[in-house]
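Open question from group meeting: does this chain pack into something compact, or does most of it stay loose? Before anyone orders reagents, we agreed to write out a predicted structure and look at it together. Recording both the input and the output here so the notebook holds the full record.
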Amino acid sequence: MKYFPIALLLFSCLAKPQSKIGNSLFNGFDLTGWHVDVPDLEKDSTLRNPFIVRDGLLVSLGTPEGHLITDAIYQNYEIEIEYRFAGAPGNCGLLVNASTPRALYEMFPKSIEVQLMHENAGDFWCIVEDIEAADMEQRRGPKENWGITEGKERRIKNLTDGTEKPLGEWNKMKVLVKQDSITVWLNDVFVNRGWNCTATKGQIALQAEGAEVEFRKVLLTPK
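Structure tokens returned:
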């Protein structure tokens, strides 16, 4: 009988559900599992591919502009990225729940963008999909101007300022996509949350949008 508590403890440990393990979407060597959608490359095949692997990092060179999109579709997950601007600061984005390509401005796929733009990281941009958030009129503008297509108020500002690291340092962003909600943390600070998203699953995309950005982690964990 003196061994029973230990046996019970071992059984209890074994019986516990195992934690879901993260899966790196970038293998450090090539872009397996991703495909490129860059409109200008279709017009001129001599242009460079803006998405490369350099020194073990996934790099968005910024131009020509377009998207690096996962082949797979995901639902109910947390994605963690670590990124930094390699040179001059500028624009980039992480797109979730992405689907129809080139749905906006013949460039952007239907999605919700989690902004990576310098000094605006954590904003939402509605790209032919929509999402709700707290204090919408303050953060998105007058309600009559809201929309999800060209010329509409599609940006929902993040909740904090000063959460980005100094230029050249690595930022860590976590995005939880769970059912119809999207929650964002930047450098372990809660910066945005939306709900009633019009899409609950889709591909994941990284942007080439003018500035060179390096990524050293793209980790997805089912939730």
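Observations to bring back to the group:
The first strand starts at residue 23 and ends at 24.
The chain has one domain: 19-222.
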